[in-house]
Specification:
- The chain is of the alpha+beta class.
- 68% of the residues lie in helices and 9% in strands.
- The strands form two sheets. The chain has a six-stranded mixed beta sheet with strand order 3-4-8-5-7-6. It has a five-stranded antiparallel beta sheet with strand order 2-9-1-11-10, with helices on both faces.
Amino acid sequence: MLFKLSFRNIIRSMKDYAIYFFTLILGVVIFYVFNAIGTQTSMMKLSNSTHDVVKLLVNVLSGVSVVVAGILGYLIIYASRFLIKRRNKEFSIYLTLGMSKRKISLLLFFETLFIGLLSLVAGLAIGVVLSQLMSVFVANLFEADMSKFQFVFSSEACLKTIAYFGIIYLLVIAFNTIMINKLKIIDLIQASRKTEKVRLKNPIVCIIIFFLAAAILGVAYYQVTVNYLTFLSNPSMFTQVMGAGILATFLLYWSFSGLIMKLITARKKLYYRGLNSFTFRQISSKVNTTVASMSIICLMLLFTICTLSSCLSIRETSKKQLEYATPVDAVVSYRNNDNSKWEESNSEEDKDDPALKAWKQKMAVKYENDSKASIEDIIKTNPGLWDSLKDQTSFNTYSLSKKIENGGLDLNAVLNQKSLQKMAEMTNGHANGMYVLRIISVSDYNKIAKLYHFDQYKLNPDQYFILSDFKKMEEIYNISLKDGHKIKINGKTLSPKFDHNKQGFIEPSNTNGNMGILVVSDEVTKTLAKYENFMAANYKTNDKNKTEQLDKDLRRVITGNENDYIKITSPRFYSIQTKNQIIAMSVGLQAIATFLGLYLGIIFLISSAAILSLKELSESSDNRDKYMVLRRLGADEKMINRALFRQIAIFFAAPLFLAIIHSIFGLTFAIKVLSFIGTEGLALSIILTVVFLVAIYGGYFLLTYLSSKRIISEKQLRRD
C-alpha cells in the first residue's frame, strides 16, 4: 500500500520535484563525467610522459570528488527539507487520519528511493554521452591520437557515482526520518499561516554598518589589486583580507536589508506602482534568513566566476607559450661547482693530517680530469645516441671568478637607482640578491639564436644588451636601459646597445621564465671564468615514441638513470631539459588547473543556484494563500505573475550583483598574477564563464519562476 502510494505521489508531484530532480541529475552527470576521465584517456594513444600526468590528474580528481560529494550531499539534504516543508498539509492529513510517523517515514523512504533511482539512471545516461565529448576536450588538451576513438563506458566511474550517491541518499533518508519524528499536527496545520518576525533595524545603525562594510571592502580591494605582491607573500595577510572580505559581504547584506524598505517606501510612485508594495513586503518578510544565505551564495558565485575565468585562461596561455619556449628537442648542461675546497689542499688543518691532504690532492686531480670532458664527449660514448642527434650547438655562460657560486652579475650591478626602486616596490623590498644575471658572449648567443630562430646581433667591445621574456622584469630593465645605464665587469665599462631589453632565452622552460641574461662581447668574456656549458640539439626523428626513447637514452648517458633529469658530482651539476618533458609538465599543470576549476566551479554554481531556487519555491509554497487574497482583491494573473517574476529576479540578482563587483577586483588580481606567465585567452575564458552562468544560473532562475508560477496558480490551489 505504502509502495503504491509513494509511487503515485511521485507521478502526481513530478512538477513539484522538477528542481530537485534537475539538481540530482546535474550532480550525477558532473560526478560521472569527471570521474570517467581516467577511463576515457585509456583508449587514447598517449605518450609515456603523458600517462604519468593523467594518472596524477585522476588521483587529484578522485580526492576532490570527496569534497564534491559532501557539497552535493548538503545540497540534497537542503532540498529534502524543502520538499517536506512543501507537503506540510499532506502530512497533517495523514496524521489526522491515523497514519503513524513510522509509516510516513517509510513512505518518504520509497519516494527517495524512486527519485534516487530515476536521477541515477537519467544522470548516468546523460553523463555517459557527455563523457564522450569530454574525451575530445581531453584529447585536445593532451594532443592525443584519437584515431582509435570509440564509445567508452566507465564502470569504475559508474560504481563510484552509485556508491557516493547511495551514501548521500542514506543520509537523506535518515534526515527525513528525524524530521518526520519531530512533526506535530498543530504545527503542520498552522505552518502556512506563520511568517517570519520582521525585526526592524535602526536606519542610522544600518547606514553606519553599510559605510563600514564598504570601507572594509575598499581596503580588501586595494590589497588584492595594488598591494597584491605583499598580499601574496604574507600568508597571515592573505587570511586577514579574505576574512575581512567575507565579513564585509555579510555586513553589506545585513545593512542593506534594513535600508531597502526605507529607500523603497520613500519613493511613493515606485512603492505603490502595481503590486510593488506586496513584492517588497514579501522580500522584507524573510530578511533575517536571507542575509546569511545571500552572503554564502555571493561568495560561491565569486569563487565560480574567478575560478572558471582563470583556469580556462591558464590553458590558453600555456599552449601559446609552449610553442615559443620549446624551440629544440633537448638541452643538456653542466655547471662547475665551487672548486675552492680542492684548491685549498694546503690549508692549516691539513698539516697535521697527511691522509686528508692526500685525499684532497687526489680529488683535485679527479676534478681537473672530469672538468676536461665536454657534454659532446660524454654523449659520444654512446655512438648510436650521438648519431641520432642533429643541429648540435654548444655554448657557455660565464662568472666573474672561479669561486663564485651563482655565476653571473647581481641585479645591483645591472640596474640603476630608479630600476632598483621599482624592483623594491614589486618585491616588497626584497630586491637585493633576488636574482643574478647569467653572462653569455654575443657569438655564443648568436649560435643558439640561429638554432632557435631568434634575431642575431653585433656588439662593440664596450657594449651590452639584456635578454628577458619575463614581463615584470622587462619593465624594470627598460628603465635602466632608457637612461643609458653603464655597468662594470672586471674593470671594463659597458654601455647598453639598445634602450630596451630583447626577447629571448638560452634554455627552454614551461613558462616565460627568463628573468634576465646579460649579453656582452667576446672580448669581455675572455676575462671571465666559464661557469656553465650547454649543448642544444634536435632529434633526427619526429616520431613521438622514438623521441621519448631518445630522451631516456640521453638521461641514462648523462645522469646514469633514464628517470633522472639532474645529477650532482663533485665537480659538476648536470641538468637535462627535453621538449617532451617540458610539454608534459606544462600540460599536466594545465590539465589539473583546468579540470579542478571546471569541476569545483560548476558544482559551486549549481549549488548556489539550487539553494536560491529551493528557497524561492519554499517561499511560493508558503505564500499561496496570499496570492489567492490578491486575486480576490482584483489583481489579474498578469499582475501576479509580474510580481512573482520581480520577486524571484531580485533574489537571484542580489547575490550575483555583488559577486560580479567582487569578481572585477578578483579577476584584476588574477590578471596581475597571471601577468608573470601571460594573460592570453582571458577574454575568451570570461566569455565562456558568462555562458556557464547564463546556462546554469539562468536555467535555474527560469525553472524557479515556472515552478513557482505553477505552485501559486489558481488551478493548483483549487486542486490542493
